[in-house]
Amino acid sequence: MSIYDLVNRTKTFISGDWTGDQDLIAKLKEWNQNNNLGLNFVDVHELTQSYDTSNPCSIKASLRQRLNISKTFVLIAGRNTLSLTKGACRYCSHYSTWYTNCAANGKPFDNRSFIEFECEMALKDYNAGELKKIFVIYNGLITPERSRCPEVLRYVGTHIGSDCWNANGQRALDYQEIKKAICW
After folding, report:
1. What's the whole-number average pLDDT of the chain?
2. What is the pLDDT of residues 64-101, one digit of tens each?
3. Structural domain span for residue 24
4. Residue 105 forms part of a structural domain
5. 123 is a domain residue
6. What share of the chain has pLDDT > 70, as a percent?
7. How many CA atoms lie within 13 Å of 73's alpha carbon, on the beta-carbon side?
8. Is residue 116 in some structural domain?
9. Which of 34, 45, 169, 176 has its CA 20 to 30 A from that of 52?
């Protein structure tokens, strides 16, 4: 079965800085794989993979397919989320300042980062009633700091901090709030 065979929106799409916010993304996956915890979701990225060597337009097409089968969009907003540029056509080997279309696929250049692209597609699907929930989790924060969120989603969906104060007065990941957000 391929991703093209899936038509029901039942998956969870996690977007974020896979380098700077890898700690929280890895923790979500760890919690999801632990059968003793109640966090349970199907990560759409585990169904199909893109390669870093692929053209940005190919990766964006794959991201669009993944979002098409997702019911929940989770953005991990970290310290560097707004400054990410990976995915912009200007960094592709097919980019030329002399042309307006991509030599690889004939489509117009798209200088949005992967995160900008994902957030805009998520909002489009959400407004069309196809995507059920949007959650923004602010990595390393107790309370949301919306200035870290891409403007397109800044006031859309549910926004939570990833951290809390535990019973010992120490800062820790807020498993219960994150679970409630993802598993709603």
Report:
1. 83
2. 888 999 999 999 999 999 988 776 665 565 555 545 55
3. 3-83+112-183
4. no
5. yes
6. 78
7. 30
8. yes
9. 34
Distance of alpha carbon 57 from alpha carbon 178, whole angstroms = 32
79 vs 152: CA distance, rounded Å: 17
Say whether 73 sits in a helix, a strand or coil: strand
Q: What is the number of structural domains in the chain?
A: 1
Sequence-separated (6 or more) residues with CB below 8 Å from residue 81: 16, 17, 20, 21, 75, 115, 148, 149, 150
Q: Which residues contact 46 (CB under 8 A, 6 or more apart)?
A: none
d(CA 134, CA 182): 9
What does residue 102 show for φ and ψ, rounded to 5 degrees?
-75, 130
Cα–Cα dist 134/128, whole Å: 13
**How far, in Å, CA of 66 to CA of 55, rounded?**
17
179 φ/ψ angles, rounded to the nearest 5 degrees: -60, -45
What integer is the mean pLDDT of 161-184? 91
Helical (H) or strand (E) element with 126: helix 114-127
Q: What is the CATH number of the domain that holds 147?
A: 3.40.50
Length of the chain: 184
Query: SS3 of 174, please?
Result: coil
pLDDT band, very low/low/confident/very high, at 104 (cuts 50, 70, 90): low
In a domain, 90, yes or no: no
Q: Which of these, 7, 8, 110, 124, lies nearest to 60 by C-alpha position?
A: 110
